Amino acid sequence: MWRSEEVWFFQPREPVFDSNTIIIDDEELVIIDPGTESREYFNEILGETGNSFNDVDIVFYTHGHYDHFEGTSLFSETDKFAFAPDGKRIGNKIGFKVNEIEEERTMSFGDLSFRVLHTPGHSKGSCSLYLPGKLIICGDLVFANGSFGRVDLEGGSKEEIKKSLEKIDQLDFGHLLPGHRDIGGKKSVKKSLENLKEL
Ligand SMILES: [Zn+2]
Prior knowledge:
Blueprint: E1 2-4, E2 7-10, E3 21-25, E4 29-32, H1 39-48, E5 58-60, H2 66-69, E6 79-83, H3 86-94, E7 99-101, E8 106-109, E9 112-118, E10 127-131, E11 135-139, H4 158-169, E12 175-178, H5 186-197
Parallel strand pairs: 4-5, 5-6, 6-7, 11-12
Antiparallel strand pairs: 1-2, 2-3, 3-4, 8-9, 9-10, 10-11
The structure holds zinc ion.
The site of zinc ion has 5 residues, from loops.
């Protein structure tokens, strides 16, 4: 577990292919990418943040891949958000309405105002949540070691992922919170752009 003020970052225990989960605990309690996790797991990590299961207000998805959204059935009462068209894809799979959000929308949770950025390439509706000057939550766009999300799945595109990486390379942040494995930073993005050239 890693924490920066109201933002908590949890890595899965088992199975390791599962996505990382981020919790924002401010006036709203937000879960980003519930992965495929169980009620026990959420009880445990929500407990670490001083909350419980029924306190969750919002579930947000970085993109429409099952290793990021399958745990949603546990959160039947919450508002759900994702970028189009992945929101629709998730909604169809889980049987709940997922609100689709637009580029540059600001999502404010208490004092934290995140910008929603469309960062496609790994999937059509992949998006990132950017807290200016601090951190970016980037799903499977790029990972700490400078590798980037697969572009060979449905809706993936090497050209799009390059544009998305260039876009976040312009931003000011210290921590990069990816959908899998460890936390990275600006240099993860620089390295991924280098790696992309070799593809
Ligand atoms: Zn994915």
